[in-house]
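A common beginner's mistake is to predict each chain separately and then try to dock the pieces by hand. The better habit, illustrated here, is to supply every component at once so that their relative placement is modeled jointly.
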Amino acid sequence: MKLITAYIQPERLNAVKQSLYERRVFKMSITNALGCGEQKGYHETYRGADIEVNLLKKVRLEIAVNDDYVDAAVEAIISGAKTGSIGDGKIFVQELTECIRIRTGETGPVAVG
Amino acid sequence: MYIRTRSAYIGKGFSGYRRAALLLLAAGMLGAAEADGAALDALRQDLNIVWTAVAAFLVFFMQAGFAMVESGFTRAKNTVNIMMKNLMDFSMASVVYFILGFGLMFGVSNGFWGSSHFLGSFSDLAGDDWNWTFLIFQTVFAGTAATIVSGAMAERTRFPAYIAYSVLIAAFIYPVFGSWAWGSLLAGGGWLEGLGFTDFAGSTVVHSLGGWLALAGAMVVGPRLGKYGPNGEAKAIPGHNIALGALGVFILWFGWFGFNPGSTTAGDGSIGRIAVMTNLSASAAAITALVTSWLIHSKPDGSMALNGALAGLVAITAGCADVSGLGSLSIGAMAGILVVFSIEFIDRVLKVDDPVGAVSVHGVAGAFGTLAVGLFHIEKGLLYGGGFSLLGVQAAGVLAAFAWAFGLGYILFKVIDAILVLRVSEEEELRGLDIGEHGMEAYSGFQIFTTQ
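With all components supplied together, the output reads:
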């Protein structure tokens, strides 16, 4: 079992969802996130004054998958989120030690589903 | 008599001017025969000016209503853009209508356009109070026609392109059509009103015209990303603040008490009657739109009821001075049902993406309300034994408005697209026009999903 965490551009989320669906990955959690990396930020102006926006809006995507779905999910996220410019985001893959489905009490790969 | 003694008594301690005013007021109540005719005429003229100006200010406030409706029914990431469009189309319209539009609409006319009264040239500054009052009243109407399109093209139109459009509607498209129907209200006179076309406050002249331009604009700019699925199925893109949308509808309803009763441009007894007709139609339409959506979707849809109220207001605008209470209720009730089917038809069958329903509310309900005058006019309507002649004339006006506004609008938006580019980039549309077009956010510091 693996936990995939990806930070992506908010406006790419729809494309990522589409490509996950195409690879039969239907479950995910989405949260709004603020963050910065190499992209550095952009400028807004307010009442004529410049604002440097350092922390950018990102979306954090979390998906728990069984091992045979890891590659498909990672590919899907890349194909949906990649534009080729700085700021496309990163994907982290971690070991998942346990998973329990609350409704049934099932554990392990069955609970990941 | 009581009134006379009372005013005479009060008059003792007052200055001459105020005493005269009180006497005139009393004389007005007692009947003109006892008063000085010329002074009474002057007072009546002042009363007309006061009422028309107050009505103009109410109609101006409808700009706030449009801004709230449009932002409430669209996504948070485009709110600054909606506000700027509403501010700028009114400002642009005010300037160009003063320079060019007013003269085209109300100047001395050849039946198709006016050619005097440009740049306020109808009077020197000191005199001619009525013309100035009439100008501000007509300016806010031009602003209303201009702002209708904003909602239909929301969330994907480039700001400079929209500004170019708003100049052209207020300088040319609206005034020329307006001169056909309303020119004789001042110095002009147009071919439509010559036929007997009846559009009291602008179901066709203002609302249908704006609605058909909105249709042309929404077609040329294309649907928002994600509005239609791969098989063409329509998807909902929910608005971000229904409270703002509802506030906007109430403000518009409030402003309509200037729009319709103000179009008498006279401070007389008809104001109250026209206000009743306006209110009845709006209420009936809100109810029938709610019931219709309830029957179709098994839930009473709030956004449909709100759009229904607006459709009722638009529909009664043409006939509010010439129909009975029952006629007004009928017009409103039918408009409320019509707007629900129209919104779904445009969304699902025509596949034109109109985020706030402007084409249905203004274009379709306006055309319907104009035709309904031919049915419900208490003297010339078909249902009152007036025969088909008025109905035919109304139909001619409705068709002329569609041909003029949609035809010209479609060409116009194509030309703007070729010169200025009408649509923002895909990336900008996804991120939101607030950042892309204006470099600022409407809800800075709030967590907003910009993922749709």
